[in-house]
Amino acid sequence: MAHDTHPHGAARRGAARPGGARRRRWPLAVGAALGGCALFAAAAAPAAAHGVGPGRATRYVSLGDSYTSGPVIPRQVDADCARSDHNYPSLVAAELRATTFRDVSCGGATTENMWKAQGTSAPQLNAVRRDTDLVTVQIGGNDIGFGSIIATCARLGSQDPTGDPCRRSYTSSGIDRLTLAVAQTAPKVDRVLRAVHARAPHARVLVVGYPDLLPDDGSGCHPSVPFASQDFPYLRDTEKRLNLMLRLVAEWNRAEYVDTYAPTRGHDMCKAPADRWIEPLQPASPAAPAHPNAQGEEAMAQAVLERLSEGHGRH
Fold this sequence. Notes:
Layout: H1 20-24, H2 26-35, E1 59-64, H3 66-69, E2 76-78, E3 83-84, H4 88-96, E4 100-103, E5 134-138, H5 141-144, H6 146-159, H7 165-170, H8 177-199, E6 204-208, H9 232-252, E7 256-258, H10 261-264, H11 294-310
Parallel strand pairs: 1-4, 1-5, 5-6, 6-7
Antiparallel strand pairs: 2-3
Helix pairs in contact: 2-8, 2-9, 4-11, 8-9
């Protein structure tokens, strides 16, 4: 989970909505994400695949947060946004031999920063233009509070290392506040994707999910990752719920989902330094705490390229 802790505002009201029939069924997507059910995906509109690939004129824009920007990974080319020229968008652009490439991803970004400046950085959506061919979007982690979740669970884990104090804290009111946060983020991501389509109606749009951060089998590695041992499954499931929501919202908006969890499984922050692609809270390789290192960015780049190749030549 990311360390980005920048605050975010509520999604703007009054934006144009698609047709009423589809919009009335929108709560089904949220319900699917909450319940961990993927049935809704079958009812979503199929994603449009446009001609994007090596040898084709490709105007590529990358939007996202620190998982996209690649903080600390050499070489950092934007100190304000902690952006690396070896993050996955840069690797994808090089492989595609993109005609133009604009990476405006920024550490700490939330969905609100698609429209709102972030420090000296302009709103990210400003980079998307009518002639854009390809857009990748990786956003939502900071909207649910990745940074505060890590801080809270690490603090509670130090007090009860063998229990599940983090889960108990987030569910103490009888409602899982992290599940609720995922549900509340769904319409924000929906709004981002509708804005991307409006600005670049012919672009191929890919929503990139988050990589495997913690052991998929639910095991822990306290104290190297200072969460309580029984909280690891809860935090794993929270990330999976976030990724499921992103996939459903992507398909709802005729975008494509890129699964980066499966190809990074087994390389989480609990693994030995030689095997991990996500660094723990005390990194051993150049990367921000709880973020992909260079190998993790390479794995996400490969997942994006494979997804692009699946649709190559289809219209």
